[in-house]
Structure to design on (873 residues):
């Protein structure tokens, strides 16, 4: 029989799921400061690649760059699912010639003063060399040791075997050597969609654990069972894996041969003309499986989710709003956010988004789902969901440059350009992977590019009716400034921070207070010539010394979850042409813009600002974004300060001239050059146009809509 | 805790009726004076105020007339009037009574209080250290006009409408 999964049936399935899976609250109480253990914001990245999939580095070099060169506090190595021929557990040959650095000068007085060096000394080799991590599994461990299906020459190893038998122990060792939590994840090739950053931590024993029994068996099994590129039918050879989910009605779809949802004529178990929507169902089964096996130590964060275009029931494209709702409904503790700010920041096109992406490209380096005020993200926040904003570096390679060169026309190293700052409540103990995943899940995090900011305290506090307003304000601003100084958060009863909510009566006055640090000196950019984008408006600012221009406080109303049975609202029909104008939350707007005229500045770069909301009436949320680009900078921002499509600066057609000349004598040679004129492009564009995004703070007003996604 | 529809409606109705009933008050404006309060008078104000603020997390504290009397009838601070104070306290007391999961609000205690610079109308400047000690102690200095009259110090506010 030919299975059919129309969207109506998918919706009903989701409705059934949500009737049995509790929409568990996932954030911590806002008004009980004493319940919050001490914590700090730590930096990390959960989406990067090695030669075990389509990356260019060994595990060793990738981890070394991330946690040593760029000093990330934690790191997740997450290759694609499927199979590959190369053995990423082998390190680069130190005797191979390394492409020379170009001798670019480095910061002398910034936060990166001591590191990195002028060039990144270290081993490396041309990607074409069949040495180091580019050697094949077959040539290094032998054909007989490679398990599962496959007849290619050389034989490729399934990712489940790489993870379980080879990569895990290397990653565990590298993390322990660096004394940082480093673990194995997976960039899942989602059935029915493009990609998602995932991890199943349970069983792994990253630093500070010293256990000798750590393993990534569950992570490996997840890959076997639910990655669309894993068409192996071996059940993990001797593992004899079974991919069923206890009690799931979709177990009837499982192929007895492979023990996973993979019909004989559709071993990917994905969306096809014959099996429409099957892939999405299978992806949901994966979430249910995580929820059963590792409910508090798994995560599922769709990556660069605008890139592949809108959802296609007969193909593997992107994610519409209803799919994100489905994920969040099925497993709210696991599917709690997205990477709407993609990696590949130096690639042309920026973020690797072509004009076929939803929205037609990136906007200041961010996809339209989050960059658009009132867009898809605001739609989800307007429901009161725990749906958080993340970013990743998605490191694959340096493009035409060597791995130790500072220029790049493809990817930035983890921590070099993009940082996720995540609150981890570790008390006096060591940082742990479990604590980091708790932090990711909490929503108490923010993202900044180019070290635009490196500290943030963002709170919404109920006004004490017995305290004069300016005393309230002074106290909260001081607490926020203290939090920034300590890289911590405000812990005061009646104040909620990112990922949390306040519950207040109608008529309560609110204080929305922000304190952040614009680090002084220079960032990690190798370029010190004037920012070409700002030069258009007569601002001369070195590209490696960005200055935060302004902060937008964005807010919108919360009106409650959309019910899956209401298909018109739950899964509104969309076409690619609907974006970027598509509005999902019409109440969302810029509530206040802060800049040097209305924030309090100190010499160490700390900026503090407060917005008072008198007599709140309806449930709502607040979030922040900020940038070094003022409003109305040609090709970069509109009159309200919204980021414009990045193709305006550097058109998708690489033969066309750019919009912003890069005329300084120091402008590098790899810029797009047309008729002898160099134009801002590639990594220069990325360093020129910096943004940060915070996660939201919710306010639930008694008698108004519930913010159901947050405790 | 979930709040039933009935409770929500009751709360809303209560708040509305209360707001409509709120009017002027009967506290007499103290006579102007140019004399500064004594240390004992300042200490008495500080003690009463700190005690009142600390009690605002409870229904009895929110409905205490003694706390309201620490504010001058002409109190106006960043647009916040004495009437607004009274309305807020009353509304808060209703909310506390019906919603157990209501968030609190930041509390603070004054210390090192000095009152000086009194003018002919008895308007002086109070300078104090404001402290919140919930978890990470937050301390900042703070000044606000107060009115000294009939031997009592009362908060007067900056007299600004916003």
């Amino acid at each position: 029989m030919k299975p059919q999964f129309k969207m109506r049936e998918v919706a009903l399935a989701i409705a059934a799921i949500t009737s049995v899976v509790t929409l568990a609250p996932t954030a911590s109480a806002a008004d009980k400061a004493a319940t919050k253990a001490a914590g700090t914001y730590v930096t990390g990245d959960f989406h990067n690649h090695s030669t075990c999939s389509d990356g260019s580095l060994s595990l060793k070099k990738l981890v070394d760059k991330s946690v040593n060169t760029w000093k990330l506090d934690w790191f997740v190595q997450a290759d694609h699912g499927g199979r590959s021929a190369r053995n990423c557990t082998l390190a680069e040959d130190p005797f191979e010639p390394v492409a020379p650095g170009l001798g670019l000068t480095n910061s002398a007085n910034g936060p990166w003063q001591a590191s990195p060096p002028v060039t990144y000394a270290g081993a490396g080799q041309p990607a074409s060399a069949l040495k180091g991590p580019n050697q094949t599994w077959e040539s290094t461990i032998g054909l007989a040791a490679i398990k599962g299906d496959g007849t290619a020459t050389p034989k490729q190893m399934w990712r489940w075997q790489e993870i379980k038998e080879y990569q895990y122990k290397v990653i565990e060792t590298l993390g322990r050597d660096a004394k940082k939590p480093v673990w194995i994840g997976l960039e899942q090739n989602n059935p029915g969609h493009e990609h998602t950053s995932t991890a199943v931590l349970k069983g792994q024993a990253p630093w500070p654990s010293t256990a000798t029994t750590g393993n990534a068996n569950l992570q490996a099994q997840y890959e076997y069972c639910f990655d669309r590129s894993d068409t192996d039918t071996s059940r993990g050879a001797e593992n004899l894996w079974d991919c069923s989910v206890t009690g799931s009605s979709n177990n009837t779809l499982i192929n007895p041969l492979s023990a996973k949802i993979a019909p004989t004529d559709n071993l990917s178990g994905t969306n096809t003309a014959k099996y429409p929507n099957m892939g999405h169902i299978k992806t949901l089964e994966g979430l249910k499986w995580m929820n059963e096996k590792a409910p508090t130590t798994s995560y599922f964060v769709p990556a660069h989710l605008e890139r592949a275009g809108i959802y296609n029931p007969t193909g593997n494209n992107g994610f519409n709003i209803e799919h994100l709702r489905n994920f969040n409904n099925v497993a709210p503790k696991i599917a709690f956010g997205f990477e709407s700010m993609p990696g590949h920041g130096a690639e042309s096109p920026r973020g690797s988004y072509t004009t076929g992406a939803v929205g037609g490209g990136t906007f200041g380096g961010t996809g339209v789902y989050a960059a658009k005020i009132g867009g898809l993200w605001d739609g989800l926040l307007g429901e009161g969901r725990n749906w958080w904003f993340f970013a990743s570096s998605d490191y694959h390679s340096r493009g035409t440059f060597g791995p130790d060169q500072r220029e790049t026309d493809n990817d930035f190293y983890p921590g070099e350009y993009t940082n996720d700052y995540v609150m981890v409540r570790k008390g006096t103990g060591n940082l742990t992977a479990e604590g980091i995943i708790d932090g990711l899940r909490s929503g108490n995090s923010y993202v900044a590019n180019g070290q635009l900011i490196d500290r943030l305290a963002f709170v919404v506090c109920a006004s004490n009716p017995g305290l004069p307003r300016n005393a309230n304000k002074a106290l909260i601003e001081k607490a926020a400034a203290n939090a920034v100084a300590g890289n911590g958060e405000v812990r005061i009863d009646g104040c909620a921070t990112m990922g949390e909510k306040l519950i207040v009566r109608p008529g309560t006055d609110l204080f929305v207070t922000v304190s952040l640090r614009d680090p002084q000196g220079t960032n990690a950019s190798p370029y010190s010539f004037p920012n070409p984008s700002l030069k258009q408006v007569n601002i001369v600012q070195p590209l490696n010394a960005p200055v935060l221009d302004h902060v937008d406080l964005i807010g919108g109303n919360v009106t409650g979850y959309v019910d899956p049975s209401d298909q018109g609202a739950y899964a509104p029909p969309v076409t690619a042409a609907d974006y970027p104008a598509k509005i999902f939350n019409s109440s969302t707007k810029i509530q206040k813009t802060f800049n040097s005229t209305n924030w309090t500045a100190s010499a160490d770069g700390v900026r503090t600002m407060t917005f008072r909301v008198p007599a709140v009436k309806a449930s709502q949320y607040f979030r922040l974004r900020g940038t070094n680009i003022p409003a109305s900078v040609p090709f970069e921002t509109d009159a309200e300060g919204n980021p414009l499509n990045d193709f305006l600066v550097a058109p998708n057609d690489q033969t066309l001239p750019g919009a912003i000349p890069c005329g300084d004598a120091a402008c590098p040679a790899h810029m797009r050059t047309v008729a002898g004129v160099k134009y801002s492009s590639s990594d220069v564009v990325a360093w020129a146009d910096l943004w940060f995004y915070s996660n939201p703070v919710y306010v639930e007003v008694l008698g108004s809509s519930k913010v159901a996604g947050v405790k | 805790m979930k709040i039933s529809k009935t409770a929500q409606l009751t709360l809303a109705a209560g708040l509305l009726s209360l707001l409509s009933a709120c009017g002027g008050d009967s506290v007499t404006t103290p006579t102007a004076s140019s004399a500064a309060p004594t240390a004992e008078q300042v200490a008495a104000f500080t003690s009463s105020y700190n005690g009142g603020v600390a009690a605002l997390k409870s229904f009895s504290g929110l409905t205490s007339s003694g706390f309201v009397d620490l504010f001058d009838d002409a109190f106006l601070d960043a647009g916040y009037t004495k009437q607004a104070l009274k309305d807020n306290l009353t509304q808060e007391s209703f909310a506390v009574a019906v919603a157990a999961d209501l968030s609190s609000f930041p509390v603070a205690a004054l210390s090192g209080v000095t009152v000086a610079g009194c003018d002919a109308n008895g308007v002086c400047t109070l300078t104090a250290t404001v402290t919140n000690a919930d978890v990470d102690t937050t301390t900042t200095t703070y000044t606000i006009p107060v009115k000294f009259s009939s031997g009592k110090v009362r908060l007067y506010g900056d007299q600004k409408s916003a």
Chain A touches chain B at residues 30-31, 33-34, 36, 461-472, 474-479, 482-483, 486, 488, 490-496, 502-509, 614, 702-703 (CB under 8 Å). The CA atoms of residues 202 and 297 of chain A lie 6 Å apart. The first strand of chain A starts at residue 40 and ends at 45. The longest helix of chain A spans residues 159-178.
